[in-house]
UniProtKB/TrEMBL annotation:
Any GO BP: transmembrane transport
The keyword Membrane appears for this protein: yes
Localization (cell): Cell membrane
Entry-linked Pfam families: Mem_trans
Membrane topology per record: Multi-pass membrane protein
Ranges annotated as spanning the membrane: 62-86, 98-118, 124-147, 168-186, 192-213, 250-272, 284-305
Organism this protein belongs to: Geomonas paludis
Entry GO CC: plasma membrane
Name the record gives this protein: Transporter
Taxonomic superkingdom: Bacteria
Keywords carried by this UniProt record: Cell membrane, Membrane, Transmembrane, Transmembrane helix, Transport
Transport as UniProt keyword: yes
Family: Belongs to the auxin efflux carrier (TC 2.A.69) family.
Length: 306
């Protein structure tokens, strides 16, 4: 329990810090949109390139991890789509918040918990699983925005292709994977620069989430928040446990996969929502609610399924 609290407390603390800074007007209101753009276009891509370029899979059970994480991500996306289809009165912006709340995962919390619970092996396995998930998740989320908000919605393949091609998170993932696959090693100076820039992505993104929070948002957006929490904390862990068993994963590999699908959604979901025209108020509510709730759900999930 203390391990989970120690990993989640910094996340919630930075969200609270952003909320207090915005309310105290310590910084100009114009600071936050600039911070969001900096995170979205520079800091997060740097973190993704650094993370994916240097992870060598070697003799790890990479195929079982790949199948498990991709299957569960696709299944969770399908659950959100089916719920959205049954609730057509929900706006496209709110749907994108629900989609990200049910599909994304908090990489920071997952990696911190993996290292605390399973040591260096767990950290490496978690980074491997996260790398497999990142590209698919970003393609799915950008597609959700492209198809449901702006230009009247609808299937516009040209717009979808353009949104995917210029999305900095997807570009960062592809660059990282390409460098890894080529066998080329980043020069130490470049890798160090990317690592340093990437470290700033999480605190800036978390404080931006807190700055965007408005009193009453949780009550106003209770339905997408409740549904996203159900998918994130109930459906996904059970699916991950079942698929991991079916693919033969065991030990630390199985535990890490389960962990990846038990953490709250990612703060970067808010940045993407702001940049692509989503309902960022509902997104901030979902992130805050899931982060708080995970203090209780994570210990129960790990105790029951591990």
């Amino acid at each position: 329990m203390s391990t989970i609290v120690n990993a989640l407390t910094p996340v919630l603390s930075l969200i609270l810090a952003g909320f207090l800074i915005r309310r105290s007007e310590f910084l100009s209101p114009s600071f936050w949109p600039s911070a969001e753009r900096l995170t979205y276009f520079l800091l997060m891509p740097a973190a993704l390139i650094h993370s994916l370029a240097g992870k060598k899979i070697g003799s790890l059970p990479w195929f079982g991890i790949l199948v498990t994480v991709e299957w569960v991500v696709a299944a969770s996306a399908l659950l959100v789509i089916l719920w959205g289809a049954a609730n057509r009165r929900m706006g496209g912006g709110v749907f994108t918040s629900l989609f990200q709340g049910g599909v994304r995962f908090n990489t920071f919390v997952a990696l911190a918990l993996a290292e605390s619970l399973f040591g260096k092996e767990g950290l490496f396995l978690a980074a491997l699983g996260a790398g497999f998930m990142i590209v698919l998740i970003n393609v799915l989320c950008v597609s959700a925005f492209s198809l449901t908000v702006g230009s009247g919605g609808g299937l516009d393949l040209r717009r979808l292709g353009a949104d995917l091609a210029r999305n900095p998170l997807i570009i960062g993932c592809l660059l990282g994977i390409g460098i890894n696959a080529s066998g080329w090693q980043l020069p130490a100076a470049i890798d160090g620069t990317l690592a340093l820039a990437g470290k700033a992505a999480f605190p800036v993104g978390l404080m931006a989430v807190g700055a965007a929070y408005r009193a009453g948002d949780l009550a106003r957006h209770w339905q997408p928040t409740l549904v996203s929490c159900g998918i994130q904390f109930l459906c996904k862990p059970v699916l991950a446990w079942w698929v991991a068993a079916a693919t033969g994963l065991s030990g630390a590999a199985a535990g890490v996969v389960l962990l990846l699908f038990s953490v709250p959604t990612a703060p970067t979901a808010y940045i993407l929502s702001r940049q692509m025209g989503g309902d960022h108020d509902s997104m901030a509510s979902i992130i805050t609610a899931q982060t708080c709730l995970s203090f209780f759900t994570l210990p129960v999930t790990l105790w029951v399924l591990l």
